[in-house]
Specification:
The protein has 359 residues and is mainly α.
Length: 359
């Protein structure tokens, strides 16, 4: 919607700064609420293979980002942020602070989420037809189902107050500790600590509030799009799709290895390791009767790891690639073409220089 408004000339400015800061803090609180003590206990027996698979997934995504930055005419921060799996909304919100093109990052992230959300149900159905998956339980952190439920707990006022405290305290702590993207990571870490402690009521945004948060994130990205941006993105679509296909196939291979090592059903392993949006994957896990607790835990852990390490990896790789002499690809930016002086202007400038040099 934001892109449509911007392309039609209805909106020309970005969202107000307070709305942008609030959306980042609430996204961080939501990301930190996905893990619970029971979910961590369920994943404890497969902790080592899970760590290896998570590291391999990130390495595979960075290799695809290197290919895009080397030959796809995409700047390095945008390539890294666009290809890392998990936490699309969180990755998009930190793109500005990492000097990436937020429009290109959003396009790449949500294109991958869309592809995975479309193909995952088909792949899960095909896999579950050859093996019986264990019955799952509802995902941890699910919200209330009422119309007026805006946080996950039963006590809405207490949950909203807790969410506000986490957002403000996390933003303040993130700035004081100077963590990367403090408005996002500060609330995420505070929310993670609150969730693991189990001493606070349900505060995760759900229902209308969650939709409003994601709409704000989407509008902030969409209003940056112009016709020239869409033309540039269209030229970049083939290499982006190739890299996405490689990453998805690589994750499917990792799922096969994970299933063989841990004895996990292949459907559960595939849904746990697929590089898609966690909400779409959990919906597929519920509909295919997979182990929702395992899928939710693995996806959430990878999401938190990606959000924590991506800013550091992005800055490190951008600096390292610069030192190794890799040419800087052209980013998707709205820049006016440089003016080339005509022959008459060159002749005139030479004449003025000659006159100035005479005694």
């Amino acid at each position: 919607m934001g892109a449509v408004l911007a392309l039609c000339g209805v909106v020309r400015d970005r969202l107000p700064a307070p709305a942008n800061r609030a959306s980042q803090a609430l996204v961080g609180a939501l990301m930190g609420s996905y893990l619970s003590p029971s979910a961590l206990l369920s994943a404890a027996p497969v902790a080592l293979p899970l760590t290896v698979v998570t590291a391999a997934t990130i390495a595979l995504s960075l290799a695809a980002a290197w290919f895009l930055a080397r030959g796809g005419r995409i700047d390095r921060p945008s390539a890294v942020l666009g290809m890392v799996p998990g936490g699309s909304a969180a990755i998009v919100t930190c793109a500005d602070e990492l000097n990436a093109d937020v429009r290109l990052v959003a396009f790449t992230q949500y294109l991958r989420v869309g592809l995975v959300a479309t193909t995952a149900p088909l792949a899960a159905h095909w896999m579950s037809s050859s093996s019986s998956a264990a019955g799952g339980h509802p995902a941890a952190g699910g919200g209330g189902s009422g119309l007026f439920h805006v946080v996950a707990g039963s006590n809405q006022l207490t949950g909203l107050f807790t969410l506000a405290v986490i957002a403000f305290a996390g933003s303040w702590a993130g700035r004081r500790l100077r963590v990367p993207t403090p408005l996002l990571m500060g609330p995420m870490l505070v929310a993670l600590a609150a969730t693991l402690s189990g001493a606070v009521p349900g505060f995760a945004p759900v229902g209308v509030l969650q939709n409003v948060v994601f709409v704000l994130v989407g509008l902030d990205v969409g209003v940056r799009f112009t016709r020239r941006t869409l033309i540039s993105v269209r030229r970049l679509l083939p290499p982006i799709l190739v890299c996405m296909a490689v990453v998805c196939l690589g994750c499917a291979g990792l799922a096969w290895v994970f299933a063989g090592v841990t004895g996990t059903p292949i459907t559960d392993a595939y849904l746990a390791t697929t590089p898609g949006g966690i909400n779409a994957v959990l919906a597929t896990a519920v509909s295919s009767h997979a182990d929702v607790a395992l899928v939710s835990t693995v996806q959430s852990l990878r999401l938190l790891v990606v959000i924590l390490v991506t800013p550091m990896i992005t800055r490190l790789l951008a600096s390292r690639w610069s030192k190794t002499g890799v040419s800087d690809p052209t980013a998707v930016q709205d820049q006016a073409p440089r003016h080339r002086p005509s022959d008459r202007e060159l002749t005139s400038s030479r004449g003025q220089a000659t006159s100035a040099g005479r005694p």
